[in-house]
Write the C-alpha cells for this entry.
Amino acid sequence: MTAKLLDGASVARAIKDEVGSEVVEYSRRGLRPGLAAVIVGNDTASHIYVSSKVKTCEQLGIFSEKIELPETTTTEELLALVQNLNSRDEIDGILIQLPLPKQTDAALVLNSVDPAKDVDGLHPTNAGRLMLNEPGLRPCTPAGIIEMLERYQIEMTGARVVVIGRSRLVGLPVALLMLHRHATVTICHSRTKDLASVAREADILIAAIGRAGMVDAGYIKPGAAVVDVGTNKITTPGDLDYFFGDDQKRRAAFEKNGYTLIGDVNPRAAAEVAGYLTPVPGGVGPLTIAMLMKNTLAAMKMRRGSEDKGI
Ligand code: NAP
C-alpha cells in the first residue's frame, strides 16, 4: 500500500483564505481582529516562529503587535504587560511565546491572560471548557488536526483512535477533541506497555512524542490514517541513511543545513502500511499557524462580535 498524503500545507492555505475573507468583511464594518505576540529573550527558533505568525497576520489583514523583551525580564514586568494587553479592546489574542526565561514563573504569566484572549487555548479555563465540550478557544495544533481530518472526510465517529503522547499542548487536547467527535480513544505515553500492539488497533493513529521516526510499520494497522505531529532533527549520516536512503532532496537539505526534519513516524516504513499519512514538514506544522489566525478571529467574534451590526 502507498499511503495517500494528508496535505496539511494546502489545508492550512484554505483555512487562511477563509479567515482572510472574513477579516476583510469584518474590517469593512469597522471591526479588525488584533493579535499581540510577546517574545522574551534571544532564542532564535522562537524569534522565527513569532516572525512567521506576525507575517501571517499581515497577509490576512489581522492587526499584529510584536512585543520583544530582554532576557532579564521579570515575572512582575510580564504580569503588568499582560494586564495592559488584557485591558486593550483592539487586542483580541495574546500569545506568549514559550519558553520564557528560567527566572520567570511561566505558569503564573500564562494563567494571567484573559481566557477570552487566550488564542493558544492553554488557559485552565479553556482547558476546562474543552474537557466539558463547551464553547471556548481550543489549542491550535490539536484543532488543526481535527480540521484536516474533517476536510479529508476521515470518519471520526466510532473510529478507534490511539494518541501517543499526553502533553497539555497536543496529546491530551487532541484526545478530548476526538472523544467529543465520538471516537473511541486510547491515550498512550512513556509507560504504556506493549505500545506497538495498542497502536496497531488504531483506525486513526496520532503520534505526538518527540522521538525521531519511532513509529514504524509495526505500530500501524494496514490502511490506518497516521497523523505525525513530531518535529525532530536528523543530525547524523547514519540516521539520514536509515530513514531516507537515497532520497536526494533530503540529502541536499542535510548537506546544506547539517540536518533534515523528521516526525515521530518513520516515513518510508509508514507509507507502505498506512492508508493516509501526514508528511513532515508540510503536514501538521502549517496547520498550527493557520489555526492561530482562526482563533484570533474567533476570539474577536466571541468578545466583540455583538458590536457588529451586519454579521
Ligand atoms: P512533550 O510535552 O515532550 O510530550 C511528549 C509525550 O510523549 C509525553 O506524554 C511522553 O510521555 C510521550 N513519550 C515520550 N517518549 C515516549 C515513548 N518512548 N513511548 C511512548 N510515549 C512517549 O511533547 P509535545 O509538546 O506534546 O510535542 C510532541 C512532538 O510534537 C514534539 O516533537 C514537538 O516538537 C512536536 N510539536 C509539533 C507541533 C507542530 O505544530 N507541528 C506543535 C507542537 C508540538 P510521558 O507523559 O509519560 O512523559
